[in-house]
Amino acid sequence: MSNSSNAQMSGLVPSWVRLFTFLLTLACFGEARADEPGPLLTNALSIISLPADQAARSLKVSVTGIVTASDPALKGRFFMQDPTSGIFVDNFNGQRPEPGIVVEVTGITHPGAYAPIITAPTVRQIGAGPLPAAKTVAIERLMSGAEDSQRIEITGVVREAHTEGARLVADLVAGGYRFRIYAPLLTSRDPQALVAAQLRVRGTAAEAHNRSLRQLIAVEVYVPVLEDLVVAKSETINPFEEAIVPLDSLAQYRPDNSLNRRAHIRGVVTLQRLGENLFVQDKSGGLQVQSRQLTPFEPGEVVEAVGFPTFDQNLPVLQDAVLRGTSGQRVTVVPKPVSIGALQNGLHHADFVSLTARLLNCTVTRMADPAAGGTNTSTTLALQSSNVIFAAQAESVAPPSNLEAIPIGSTVAVCGVCLSEIDNDGRVKSFKILVRSPDTVRVLAKPSWFTPRRMLVILGMVSVVSIIVLGWLVMVSRQNAALNFQIGEREKAQRQLQEAHDLLEERVRQRTKELKFQITARKEAEVQFKAVLSERTRLAQELHDTVEQTLTGIALQLDTAARLYESKPESARNHLGLARNLMGKSQTELRRSVWDLRKRAIEQFDLPGALVESARQLTQPCAIKVDLQTKGNLRSLPEVVEENLLRISQEAITNVIKHARATQVDIELQFEAERVIMQIQDNGIGFDLQTCAGPSNGHFGLLGMSERARRIGGTFLPSSRLGQGTVVRVEVPLGPAEAFQWPHKGNGAPEQDASPEAAQI
User: Fold this and answer.
1) Which of 156, 341, 564, 758 has the fewest CB atoms within 10 Å of its CB?
2) Are residues 676 and 744 both part of a single domain?
3) Which position has the higher pLDDT, 373 or 443?
């Protein structure tokens, strides 16, 4: 650095120290003001040091620092630095602050695509100040990515420079490493004049990365101001005016050799891959020239190039070359006939050669080329010469015309540029021939009809046929042997079966006699047991459905009489009379249960009438209104069905009186073609089916109704909700004889549909 620059920097140091002291104080006050829960990160070092999993937790940040880089291509994103470290702020599409602006950034952490960053920022500009001092770093540390987001200083040699809009883009090399810088455009200097110059740059290190893997790919440096771009040493002589170096001596000893000094070469173009490389040849040999220049050159043109000598795959190349044509006439390029041994010894790298070989295989790869607006076709030929296998590769925008059509096994003459690959000991690992067009591959001799492939196909077909025939013969012989064995086994089995059959018949006769006796005895015992069990169950249900319900009615009448005895003696006597009547009925019911309960209410009424009469008797002392509706063709049902439906209705109404606190009960009796449905619904308080009292608590009402429905083949479906009443639904399927049975009353004609309002109580 010059003395004037040192003086300028020394004048800025005190203000820089004062500014960062002020920023540090602001950060401490910002941390003291944070009253939100959770950690608040107030400096860049604490953010960029976070592990990725912690940075992904969106921790709150509040950082004050100076903007060190804000390239327009970043679209609002920028780098900032405080006294502790630098950090990247993902301010996408936000207002871009200029370098040197002091900003306060609040946001949250994010793991970033390479290192932790600040995202969802709120940026407040505080003022302006000088950029932080750049830290001089070694090229190895810079290329490791450890200086990401930090303001650094490094020196390198410019290999390539061009403009992108209003900024300068240059590739620099230092210590064998290549990195790229983005800087303000030098209006007073041609970017090409910077090539081969030694630059000292100060800027913010950034990384090109693989976003999905969060891995480093390349290193970039953003230079914020022109003062941070210093040309330490320029190229003093136009390299095109230097002496021309023979191609074979580019990597040989020369006293003035330097990898940072461009060499001047001249040669005849043998092959060009536009934008990638160019192969030239002179009397001494060939050379690969790597250049991004898009100037096309035809084979045979004489060109000059200046570039940096280096090594690729342990072979000399000229990198970052600038090409220009000469005014000389085009030269006819004649390939050098070479032997396979000479190529194995590495004697013709980058030379235009020809050799003879046999075609083993042909592979064509087609890929879309958006830049060229077409399809890029790459054809690879696998060739063999003197037991050495190598590849010949041809690239073309249009599909090759003849390479795919060359028969496998043909003898061909190939002309192209030899591209060798050499190991660290100088031995050739492999080589391939770069064919500039399909026309440079000529067929010398087509293969005979009996090619190895055809022989393999024929041998395969014969083998398949032989295997099929052999398999068929083996299968037939096995089938015959199996058939003979099965016949013998069947004859033997038939004899054994006849003997067993005779023995079995005798045993069956004996066993049948024993089983008949045992079955008869068991059936008699089962019938007796079922009869006893059925009678017990029936008697228990009859007592529950008749005597208990009548006693409940008596208790209600007596309770009513007791309440009215003082105030209304006449009404009390009426209720006592009703209780007396119910007591007589209870005696009758009990007697009827003892004598098999053969006389029923249904013998005096049909099923709807019995339901109405039963409901009237049960609800007479209560303020409960009962409505009965019938639907469908009213007809008689089997006695057991009518009996059980009546008992279920009695139990349901008794439960309403005991527990529901209801004022209305609706009974619906629906006759369908193949079933009958009875539904009893009240408007009471309801209950929870899951927690209601059951047999374990001495309540058998629901169990008794369910067993009665199951006894006649029906389905018992209770439903209830607290505060919404209870619905008891019984569905009984009817057989064909029951479904179409005419009623036994009247003159035998079918009855009309019952009225929806059949009866009210």
Assistant:
1) 341
2) yes
3) 443
